[in-house]
């Protein structure tokens, strides 16, 4: 798990409903227009708030981006670790973990796109906290793959590249989903879980 | 192949070396700062040119983005179709096509990132031309996969999803490459070609 605890996350994000609404509105504005050109004024306007209403919650646009990144990456990590049951066979674990990862991104394309493509705009110490959470998500995939290699379920000799491919597939969902061909998040999640088993070199379930 | 011909592409892009230098500089600026906030003034400055020097080549920032998108997506399509030899067995074809696609993106992360993530900023008729070229690239992957399904080499019942996963993996390279773990484009290209064969359900070469 990440070094950040759930309690620390709550402390960073607060429990204010107004702040949560501002984060949600900011995600939409950042995703639609790009973080660089978006303004807190626009975000406030999208909620019918005065420009000054954002300030008590978020002093800068970057602090808003950081809160969104924290909430998003923590959400991904939680989705993945909750889906994983180490008691189950590795193929079932991989299917569940990949399915949850893909579903999270497909059901939240605005926040997914912001937290995956706007990280360059974070301040260094904020970026370091996000990288820490991302490493925990990567480690969760690594652990499932290694369990399958160890018990002979999976036929791969390069776990890091397999993890890279699996997480890359899930992250890129935020760029293209939905498409003309696939628009149901659960359907995509199932199809990508099958592809994950192929990448892991598992016999088909 | 796309409806656009190579001659029409040349007509759009011109043969001016100055324009090519401006496109290359614009890629770097767009990739580093985001298209939305970047200005043609900055792009000119990065080449030690006066702000007015861009205008004779590109009247608007959008026309510059369109030229880059045209050049980039045409480059991807050409890389893929040149790598494919329909006389070869499907597994060799898939390995070559995926390898070329991945290599193109890994060796050109600035233009790759711009042409994959800034398309929302294109005018509708420009976007339509780019979508047309992208469909041809998708069709090239589909054709190789179908050839392998037809002759029994590949074990997949859903060619579009396999093509989606393969192209998504290659496109997302522009987001993360290079990483601490993989920084050689050719090495990545080889590893992802192996993963492509797994996704296609081929027996290992």
From TrEMBL, chains A, B:
Superkingdom of source: Bacteria
A GO MF label: transcription cis-regulatory region binding
Domain called HTH tetR-type: residue spans: 16-76
InterPro entries xrefs: Homeodomain-like_sf (IPR009057), HTH-type_TetR-like_transc_reg (IPR050109), HTH_TetR (IPR001647), KstR2_TetR_C (IPR041490), Tet_transcr_reg_TetR-rel_C_sf (IPR036271)
DNA-binding span(s): 39-58
SUPFAM superfamilies found in the cross-reference section: Homeodomain-like, Tetracyclin repressor-like, C-terminal domain
UniProt entry keywords in alphabetical sequence: DNA-binding
DNA-binding in keyword set: yes
Keyword check for Transcription regulation: no
Protein name per UniProt: TetR family transcriptional regulator
Lineage: Bacteria, Bacillati, Actinomycetota, Actinomycetes, Mycobacteriales
